[in-house]
Design goal:
Layout (H helix, E strand, L loop, with lengths): L6 E5 L6 H14 L6 E5 L5 H7 L6 E4 L16 H6 L4 E4 L2 H6 L4 H13 L3 E6 L3 H5 L3 H12 L8 E4 L13 H19 L1 H6 L2 E3 L5 H8 L6 E4 L6 H15 L2
Helix pairs in contact: 5-7, 7-8, 10-11
The chain binds 1,3-dihydroxyacetonephosphate.
The site of 1,3-dihydroxyacetonephosphate (13P) has 14 residues, from strand 8.
Length: 253
């Protein structure tokens, strides 16, 4: 069976300023070409418009790092799916572990956010993953099953997944390809129970956690790893381009 088209996604988190984003977009626009991988960037809210405009015509998708479940209203500091779509977004991250930790987002809220994204024409990239403590206690699969079930409770029509083990985020402690493949295969198996085998086979499951140009080629090799959600290394356009190319190479094998 042909492989799913891989995705190379950049999550800038709370980093970069306007000038940086403009330079970054110029570099991507001139050197990207026609990549085999689908490319996404999740800038902070202040840079959404800069990136959407800077990458017009390149085919790169832009997404918000979070969204509120409501379309509008009295929610200070939040952004809605309508507002994300209004600045040119077509994607939204849902349930990133930093949102779960810093903002107490529950499993069920993640599902409601995924549905809200769909309602405004955005594809949610639903993030899940176990903590170090949970992995050490042998609870990885239990946690993934619980998070996935809750995220799909609202039956979002379109979504993709990102497996981001919390212990590998920003730590330099990347999961081995074997550990990542095991978790991805488990998620795809659970996904088949939730949405059927065909849809489970078509869903892209990205890996996130200390991905860099040096480990991208070996991490993309296992069959259930369909790309990356990259934090730190994605802040450097040269490194992100190298990761995009490593993802793309897997599409041709
Ligand atoms: P790092 O690549 O910095 O480990 O971050 C991963 C991540 O959280 C992407 O969403």
């Amino acid at each position: 069976m042909a492989r799913r088209r891989p995705i190379a996604a950049a999550n800038w988190k709370m980093n970069l300023l306007r000038r940086d984003a403009e330079d970054y977009c110029r570099h991507i626009a001139s050197d990207l070409g026609e990549p085999a991988a689908e490319v996404l960037i999740f800038p902070p809210a202040t840079l959404l418009q800069t990136v959407a405009e800077g990458l017009t015509g390149t085919g790169v998708g832009v997404g918000g790092q979070d969204l509120h479940t409501a379309a509008e209203g009295a929610h200070t500091g939040d952004l809605s799916g309508v507002q994300l779509a209004d600045v040119g977004c077509t994607w939204a991250l849902c349930g990133h572990s930093e949102r779960r930790k810093d903002h107490g987002e529950s499993d069920s809220l993640v599902g409601r956010k995924a549905l809200a994204a769909n309602e405004h024409g955005l594809v949610p990239l639903i993030c899940l993953g176990e903590s170090d403590e949970e992995r050490r206690a042998g609870r990885t699969f239990e946690v993934l099953e619980r998070q996935l079930k809750a995220a799909l409770e609202t039956t979002p029509a379109a979504f993709e997944l990102a497996y981001e083990p919390v212990w590998a985020i920003g730590t330099g402690a990347t999961a081995t390809p074997e550990i990542a493949q095991e978790a991805h295969a488990f998620l795809r198996q659970q996904l088949a129970k939730e949405v059927g085998k065909q849809r489970a086979q078509a869903t892209r499951i990205l890996y996130g956690g200390s991905v860099k140009p040096e480990n991208a080629a070996e991490l993309i090799a296992p069959e259930d790893i369909d790309g990356f959600l990259v934090g730190g290394a994605s802040l450097d356009s040269t490194k992100f381009l190298a990761i995009i190319m490593a993802c793309g190479a897997s599409a041709r094998v």
